[in-house]
Amino acid sequence: MTARVFEAALGIGAPWSVRSIEFNDRSGVLTLQVDFKPGTHFTVTGHTGSHPVHDTVMKTYRHLNFFQHECHLQVRTPRVKLPDGSVHQVTPEFAGRMSGFTLLFEAMVLMLAQQMPVAAVARIVNVSAHRVQELCNRYVELALAQADFSDVKALAIDETSRARGHDYITLAANAVERTVLFVTEGRGADTVKALAEDLRAHGCDPADIESVSIDMSPAFIKGVTEQLPNARITFDKFHVVAHANLAVDKTRRAEQRNEPSLKGMRWTLLKDVFRLKPEAGAALGRLIHAPKLTRTARAWVYKEQLRVALDHKQINVVRASLQHWCTCVMRSRVEAMKDVAALVRRHLEGIVAWAQTRQTNGFLEAINGLFQAAKRRARGFKRLSSIRTVIFLIAGKLDFLAINPHARQPT
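The structure corresponding to this sequence follows.
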């Protein structure tokens, strides 16, 4: 009766059965002896028909805990002899993709790894962090191997730091589904070439990509132009405004030494004006309505004018507004903002494309934030393989169900 209860709990059926149950109260380990019915013929992947048992070997699998106790399955595993004389070991249907684990155990580890650092998962399941990491790596690689990118038409590409200094990784995502498709080291034009090769390997012709959202990095522009020939480049509004914000801050830092009214105004000048607290809003109002405007105030006004110009929905209106804005800025004495105007002029058509595509890298910035948070919790990641795995677990939305029927679909 007890054996049948455990068989039902384990989800195993004929020809497998629980032969005996052992519990070590010292170690707190529950061991279930699993056997198969004598005379059973087994099938082997890649070979037709069923085959008789040649001999057996004992295999141990870590399973989900029963209550608070570790559970191990000791399985008398058959090896069958094929017609050509070769001997193959049978893989039980409950065996996982990693040696020594069941599918249910692997599904639990995978679910935990999407929410917490590998070291924390290892402590919970009482398995080494190395094995947990390798399990996650294997599932991500298996899921990527069967991924189909044939429907991808729009991409978002961005970089994020993997360590201190100039050490970066590049991410590419499906701009429609908002799922990460590709992760590689570096942030040069070669990363886009590697992306194009990866797209081909997953059934997507790079020539079929219709639009790409990137920042104004010359390397990305060069890579996209060469490798994704039919893609329309979009520089989203948020990257452009970010450059304007930097110009405002640069002007403030240069001017505040001789201008007391700018003291404590850093974040007031950089925040969205509609989200300022009443006190900050009043201080900003006094600054930009003063009888004699500081250059910082003029820079802030130009930034807001740029934001308004980018909010228009008609391409011709956006183009004309940006051209007029650049002319006005170039006639001013706000040197930092002149650099932004020159940048806008160089990339005008890509910025204007925003009015039509409305394609943004904002969700990639959010993914970068999640990755950086995971990196801090894990005290950093040393290997690129670990970084790739973490990013795909966080934002890849990979389909693990074909690999493990117990794996929950990521959201």
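The chain has four domains: 2-95, 109-145+381-411, 154-235+360-380, 237-357.
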